[in-house]
Design a protein that fits this description.
By secondary structure, this protein is mainly β. It has one domain. Helices cover 4% and strands 60% of the residues. The protein has one helix and five strands; from the N terminus they run βαββββ. It has one helix at 20-23, and strands at 4-9, 26-41, 44-59, 69-76, 82-89. The protein has a five-stranded antiparallel β-sheet, with no helix packed on it. A hairpin with a 5-residue loop joins strand 4 (69-76) and strand 5 (82-89). The longest helix has 4 residues, at 20-23. The protein is elongated and about 45 Å long.
Length: 90
């Protein structure tokens, strides 16, 4: 992957099976990548660049709160990759 943007409905996750089919998420998923690449280096997975997944106006069959909020999952590559989940709203 390199620089890319894509948008999917959160309902797409239901097709992955448990626990996604139980959660029955609704909302929008926006994936943005910048110079992003993953490659196996022996037994280790090397990650370079950045990937950000924005989940906007997320709701679930398990909650009466609609929407529950909006969230961001950020992955930063490098020698020690970092994964950060933050609340954007909610």
């Amino acid at each position: 992957w390199q620089d890319a943007r894509s948008r999917w409905p959160a309902t797409l996750l239901t097709g992955l099976g448990a626990p996604w089919n139980t959660l029955k998420l609704e909302g929008a998923l926006d994936l943005n990548t910048r110079a992003f690449a993953m490659q196996w280096d022996g037994p280790a997975l090397r990650i370079e660049g950045q990937a950000t997944l924005d989940a906007t106006d997320v709701s679930s069959a398990l909650s009466t709160l609609r929407p529950m909020g909006s969230y961001r999952l950020s992955l930063e590559g490098g020698t020690r990759p970092t994964l950060l989940l933050s609340t954007r709203e909610g």
